[in-house]
Specification:
Layout lengths: L3 H10 L8 H21 L4 H12 L2 H11 L2 H20 L10 H12 L9 E4 L3 E13 L2 E12 L2 H4 L9 E4 L2 E3 L4 E2 L4 E2 L4 E10 L3 E10 L5 E6 L5 E6 L5
Antiparallel strand pairs: 1-2, 2-3, 3-9, 4-5, 4-10, 6-7, 8-9, 10-11
């Protein structure tokens, strides 16, 4: 059975004529609603009452939908979709340099990753970047070679195809958790060994499109984390925190 909030969201989205934006609008509304519910729960309200008050605060569905429709103008939306498709087509057809893309399979894989993109969950933390948006969500915690491995999932969506240039360089992220800073996992050519102890590294899955990217990071720790923060550049312009509620 659908909740009252889901019915309310559908009523809002029905007013938005540019239907490709409806999914993103529903996700944004869910974030605002969930934040309000959590605030009321922290104040000691019962969940049922908190959900009812949060929904009332969202406003009249039809009026909210009309306001969003004025922002998400259909002609602008379709113009953007057409220009984006044109850029993707040109990227596939253009003669690219061997240094960057050496095979047709690379072009095929990037295009497939772009088309197979799935929106990040509404619960993911979000950071607005200069040319796009980064979404961050804590993942699985497991044992790995005597360490605790904690996954962090990243979604990167670039707004400008011409400025995407491979997305955000996650090698330059800075990581820390509730125990302190985390160095990047590196390989020592002299000893032919990898970094031991607390560190972070890239892990699967990796999906690289033309403007949409997916990456999983792995934090190798001494014990299950309570939270982790990443910033960019190190010490950075922005910082975002993820929390593992079930961590012991």
């Amino acid at each position: 059975m659908r909740s009252k909030f889901e019915i309310w969201v559908d009523a809002v989205c029905e007013q938005v004529r540019f239907w490709p934006d409806r999914k993103a609008i529903a996700r944004e509304l869910r974030v605002h609603y969930d934040d309000h519910v959590r605030d009321l729960l922290r104040l000691g309200r019962p969940r049922e009452l908190a959900e009812e008050r949060a929904l009332e605060a969202m406003g009249n569905a039809q009026e909210v939908g009309w306001a969003l429709d004025r922002v998400h103008k259909p002609w602008l939306g379709w113009l953007w979709e057409a220009s984006r498709a044109l850029v993707l087509l040109l990227a596939v057809l253009v003669v690219v340099t061997p240094r960057e893309y050496t095979t047709l399979s690379t072009l095929r894989d990037r295009t497939r990753a772009e088309l197979d993109w799935e929106e990040p969950p509404a619960s993911a933390a979000r950071v607005e970047l200069e040319h796009g948006t980064l979404y961050v969500l804590p993942g699985e915690i497991r044992e790995q070679n005597g360490h605790t491995a904690a996954e962090v999932h990243l979604w990167i969506q670039m707004r400008d195809p011409l400025a995407a240039n491979g997305g955000v360089n996650t090698w330059f992220f800075s990581w820390r958790d509730d125990q302190g800073d985390l160095p990047r996992r590196t390989y020592d050519e002299r000893t032919r060994t990898w970094t031991e102890g607390r560190c972070w590294d890239h892990g699967p899955p990796w999906s690289q499109g033309w403007t949409r990217f997916r990456q999983t990071m792995v934090l190798l720790l001494d014990r299950p984390p309570q939270w982790a923060e990443l910033s960019y550049p190190p010490g950075g312009d922005w910082t975002v925190r993820v929390e593992w509620e079930a961590a012991s």
